[in-house]
Task: inverse folding
C-alpha cells in the first residue's frame, strides 16, 4: 500500500508541478540524477548530463543500463501519478531497443500508458537528446498495480 | 585466450566504465563459458524506500554490462559491441544488504550479431532475481578508438 503521507506528497507534488520532494524519497533517482517537470497535461523526464553516468569511455556515451534505468524509473513515476494504483507499481518486465548512442548531454523521456488493466499496465517510453524525432531508445514495460477496490474472487459470478 | 588473461582483460574493461565504478561492480569470474560480475548492495541503488528493494535500473546496468562483457569470452580479439536490445524479466526483489551477482553467456555468435542471456542472483543461482536476454552488434575493430582501447585492455596500459 502507498502510505497516506506519500500519497499526500504525490498529490502535492503534482498540484504544484514540483516533483523534487517526491524524487528525494527514491535513492536511485538521486544516484542517476533524474528530474521531472510538467509538460502541459503530460510529464517530461530529464536526465542531466553527468560524468557518473558514463559507460563507454571512447565516445563518451551514457551507460545503456543508466538509460534503461532512467526510462524504467520514468515509467514508474508516471504510473504513480497517472494510474489509480493503491500500491507502488511493481515492475514485471522491461524491454529496451537502443537506437543511437546516448551522448554526454541531457536526455529526455516521455511515457505513454497504452493499456491500464485491473492488475497490469503497459507503458511505452521514448528517450531522446537533441531531437525528439530521433530517439536514442524506445522501451516498454509491464507493471503490476493494485486496484483501489479489491478484485472479486474468481468463484463469484459477476453481478448482473 | 586463457582464463587468467581473460579475467585480467575483463577487469581492465570494467574499470574503464565510470558508472560501473560508481556502482562498485567487480569481475567475480570469467572463463570461456561466460562472465560473472558482482555488485555490492548499497543504500544508493534502492528503488523502493518502503522495502529496500534494489531499483531495476541498477540491475539492468549490471546485466547490460555482464551480457556485453560476455562477448569478451567468445571473441578472439576485442571488438566494440554496443547493445542492440535488452529484455529483463523480474522474478522477485533483491534482498537488501546482500551482493548481487550477474552471470551471462553468449549462446550464438554470428558475423554481425551476438546473442546473450543471463541471470542476476544473490545466494542461490537457482533462484534468480531476473532473467535477461540481450543482443549485441559487432562493430569490428575498425571503429573509432577501438584498436587502441583493445590494445590497452590487452597490455594493461591506460
Result:
Amino acid at each position: 500500500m502507498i502510505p497516506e503521507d506519500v500519497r499526500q506528497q504525490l498529490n502535492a507534488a503534482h498540484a504544484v508541478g514540483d516533483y523534487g520532494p517526491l524524487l528525494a524519497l527514491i535513492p536511485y533517482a538521486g544516484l542517476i540524477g533524474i528530474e521531472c517537470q510538467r509538460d502541459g497535461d503530460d510529464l517530461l523526464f530529464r536526465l542531466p548530463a553527468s560524468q557518473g553516468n558514463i559507460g563507454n569511455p571512447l565516445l563518451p556515451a551514457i551507460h545503456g543500463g543508466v538509460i534503461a534505468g532512467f526510462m524504467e524509473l520514468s515509467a514508474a513515476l508516471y504510473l504513480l501519478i497517472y494510474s489509480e494504483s493503491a500500491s507502488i507499481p511493481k515492475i514485471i518486465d522491461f524491454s529496451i531497443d537502443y537506437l543511437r548512442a546516448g551522448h554526454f548531454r541531457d536526455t529526455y523521456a516521455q511515457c505513454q500508458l497504452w493499456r491500464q488493466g485491473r492488475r497490469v499496465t503497459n507503458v511505452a517510453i521514448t528517450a531522446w537528446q537533441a531531437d525528439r524525432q530521433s530517439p536514442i531508445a524506445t522501451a516498454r514495460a509491464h507493471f503490476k498495480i493494485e486496484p483501489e477496490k479489491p478484485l472479486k474472487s474468481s468463484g463469484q459470478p459477476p453481478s448482473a | 585466450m586463457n582464463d587468467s588473461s581473460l579475467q585480467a582483460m575483463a577487469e581492465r574493461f570494467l574499470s574503464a566504465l565510470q558508472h560501473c565504478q560508481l556502482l562498485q561492480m567487480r569481475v567475480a569470474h570469467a572463463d570461456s563459458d561466460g562472465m560473472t560480475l558482482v555488485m555490492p548492495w548499497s543504500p544508493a541503488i534502492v528503488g523502493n524506500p518502503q522495502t529496500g528493494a534494489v531499483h531495476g535500473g541498477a540491475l539492468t546496468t549490471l546485466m547490460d554490462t555482464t551480457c556485453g562483457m560476455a562477448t569478451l569470452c567468445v571473441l578472439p580479439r576485442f571488438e566494440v559491441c554496443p547493445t542492440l536490445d535488452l529484455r529483463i524479466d523480474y522474478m522477485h526483489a533483491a534482498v537488501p544488504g546482500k551482493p548481487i551477482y550477474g552471470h551471462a553467456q553468449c549462446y550464438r555468435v554470428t558475423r554481425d550479431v551476438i546473442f546473450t542471456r543471463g541471470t542476476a542472483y544473490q545466494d542461490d543461482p537457482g533462484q534468480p532475481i531476473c532473467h535477461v536476454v540481450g543482443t549485441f552488434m559487432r562493430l569490428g575493430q575498425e571503429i573509432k578508438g577501438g584498436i587502441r582501447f583493445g590494445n590497452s585492455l590487452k597490455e594493461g596500459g591506460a
About this structure: Residues 3-155 of chain B form a domain with the Thiol Ester Dehydrase; Chain A fold (CATH 3.10.129.10). The two ends of chain B are 21 Å apart (CA to CA). Chain B touches chain A through 39 residues (CB under 8 Å). Strands of chain B lie at 26-31, 34-39, 46-48, 53-54, 83-90, 100-109, 113-121, 130-137.
